[in-house]
Amino acid sequence: MAKILVIDDNIDICQLLERFLTKKGYDVETTISGKTGLDMVKNTYYDLIFCDFKLRDMEGRDVLAKVRIISPGTHVAIITGYADVKIAVEVIKKGAFDYVTKPLIPDEIISLIERALAVQKESKVQSVTFEKPDAKAKKKSQESDSNSKFLKGTGKESKKLYKEVKLVAPTNLSVVIYGESGAGKENIARLIHDQSERAGKPFIAVDCGALTKELAGSELWGHEKGSFTGAHSEKPGQFELADGGTIFLDEIANLSYEVQVGLLRLVQERKLRRIGGTKDKAIDVRIIVASNEDLRKSVQENKFREDLYFRFNEFSITVPPLRDRKDDIEAFANHFLSLSNEELNKDVEEFDEEVMQVFQEYVWPGNLREMRNVIRRATLLTDGEKMTVSALPPEVVYARKFNFTDSGSESNGVSHSTSKAPVNLKDAAAEAEAEVLRKVLEEVKYNRTKAAKQLGIDRKTLFNKMKQYDL
């Protein structure tokens, strides 16, 4: 039975989730305090934590950071309001598994839990052992899975990207992949692996941003039993698990200087020694690293070793942000819609033209990851065969009006409204909510039952909000 912790200073949310998830067969504990929640994590292992972004005693991002140190295997999902989604995207960059927006939707909560547990299960299987079936059969299986989960763009920027992948994949060169968070750096790394001679061997992805200085050595090189307090059994490191295949080190610039020294030795000698071990082990592994910042700048600022940079920088690839791949937005959207239909057992066939227009105008600060999350949620909220803008989050629909996007995206000076944007987050959220309510009510000709169902709220809540916004 999966164990879940809910941290929210709204006791109603805690009780609601506890009752609902308990009925679904999960073991649930709750607390209204971030500090108490961290104490609970120290004493109990939780598979998943739902944590409100705005707690009374601390912020959700701080809880996230400490959970990743205390219990690296625990997934954290951030609970946030509509207007806080840009902040939530930033938290995901720091390691949150996903986020859910208020009002909470039961099907969305269950979907998130199932995805988190599936990823956790896959990670555990991958960490224990790697079977060695026929290489050709495994490569065929990997390509089939890749084809179903990964879509190649056909626009100008995409063609340039895949040309570089095709060029470097057959070699054994180390590669540095640059790109914003959510742009698909890991997918490109996996594509390089799948098109190389190592395709039938392990592909191990490591989030260096999640590794503290204390844990990094054990995670990367492994350790022997009794090598330090808590080392009750031997553990192979990620490099050892990747032997013969490819290791992908995401956000490499986040590694501490001390860990970089050990990494340099491994890269130079192609040997590793577990913590507490006495023997070196030769390894054969291709190294692909990724960063959302220029490593040369990190070298100049003495944050990254110059000799290590030159070892990695045998070939570099830049993954363009989604806002620079306008030609591919429709294809990516349809791909994510197909995946969401399969995952949620839905049958949404197409997007309304207005939805696609919104997708083209939005700057997607969270890139492909954000697009998939937006479409997954909208698919869940869509009852018919066509997705309309009423299913999209307000911060996407009204991005320019409420300045939810980067300032750079406003450079053309065009505004979709002549009204003055709210000066604070609370007012912005309220106005965006009123706009969505008005639009949905107009679509269903003010049928409150249909409107409440489409918005994922009950009739009483809808009535109160209509009264609040004078609708």
UniProtKB/TrEMBL annotation:
Entry coiled-coil feature ranges = 334-361
Q: Which Pfam families match?
A: AAA_lid_14 (PF25601), HTH_8 (PF02954), Response_reg (PF00072), Sigma54_activat (PF00158)
Q: Which GO terms describe its biological process?
A: phosphorelay signal transduction system; regulation of DNA-templated transcription
Q: Which UniProt keywords apply?
A: ATP-binding, Coiled coil, Nucleotide-binding, Phosphoprotein, Transcription, Transcription regulation
Q: Where is the Response regulatory domain?
A: 3-117
Domain Sigma-54 factor interaction positions: 151-380
Positions of the UniProt region annotated as Disordered = 130-152
Q: Keyword check for Metal-binding, yes or no.
A: no
Basic and acidic residues compositional bias: what residue ranges? 131-143
Q: Which SUPFAM superfamilies match?
A: CheY-like, Homeodomain-like, P-loop containing nucleoside triphosphate hydrolases
Record protein name field: Two-component system response regulator HydG
